[in-house]
Design a protein that fits this description.
Layout (H helix, E strand, L loop, with lengths): L1 E5 L5 E7 L2 H16 L9 E9 L2 H19 L1 E14 L2 E12 L13 E12 L2 E9 L1
Antiparallel strand pairs: 1-2, 2-7, 3-5, 4-5, 6-7
Helix pairs in contact: 1-2
Length: about 140
C-alpha cells in the first residue's frame, strides 16, 4: 500500500496503490487527509460511517473522497484513517461502505496545512498495474 503526490499546476494530484481495491481506496483517503492535516496528531476517537455510490470504480473513488470532505465539514471533524468495509456492485452501480476515523477538529491541536475543497474527475484513473490496483484523481485546493 502506498500513495504519492502528482505534479499539477494549481491543485494536488494523488495516486494510491494497493494489493486490493480496498487498500487503494484507503491509501487514497490517507493521501487526502495528509494534504489537510498532520494525521499523526489526530486520535481515532470517533467512527463516522461513509457511504457512496457511482457508475464505476474510478467515479466511486471521487465520490468517497467527497463524502468524507462533506462529513468532515458538517461534523467539524479531522480524519486520520479510512477503512473500507465493503465494495459491491448492485445492478449497474458500485457501492462502498466504510468508516472514517478521527476526532473533533481542534485548531490548536491539529496542524491544518491545506484546505481541500473537493476531489475532482480531473486526471481520474483506475487500473491494474504490476498486480496492484491504482486509483488517481486531482484534489481542488
Amino acid at each position: 500500500m502506498t500513495y504519492k503526490y502528482l505534479e499539477h499546476e494549481a491543485d494536488i494530484g494523488i495516486m494510491a496503490t494497493g494489493a486490493t481495491i480496498e487498500e487503494a481506496f484507503q491509501d487514497g483517503a490517507k493521501a487526502m487527509f495528509n494534504v489537510m492535516f498532520d494525521t499523526t496528531l489526530i486520535e481515532e476517537k470517533d467512527e463516522i460511517p461513509i457511504y457512496a455510490e457511482a457508475d464505476d470504480i474510478a467515479a466511486l473513488f471521487v465520490e468517497v473522497l467527497n463524502e468524507m470532505l462533506f462529513k468532515q465539514d458538517t461534523d467539524a471533524i479531522a480524519f486520520s484513517r479510512f477503512l473500507v468495509k465493503e465494495i459491491k456492485k448492485e445492478g449497474d452501480t458500485y457501492q462502498l461502505n466504510g468508516i472514517a476515523y478521527g476526532e473533533p477538529l481542534n485548531l490548536q491541536k491539529h496542524d491544518v496545512k491545506t484546505e481541500v475543497k473537493a476531489a475532482t474527475y480531473s486526471g481520474l484513473k483506475f487500473e491494474r498495474e504490476d498486480g496492484n490496483y491504482v486509483l488517481q484523481c486531482v484534489l481542488d485546493v
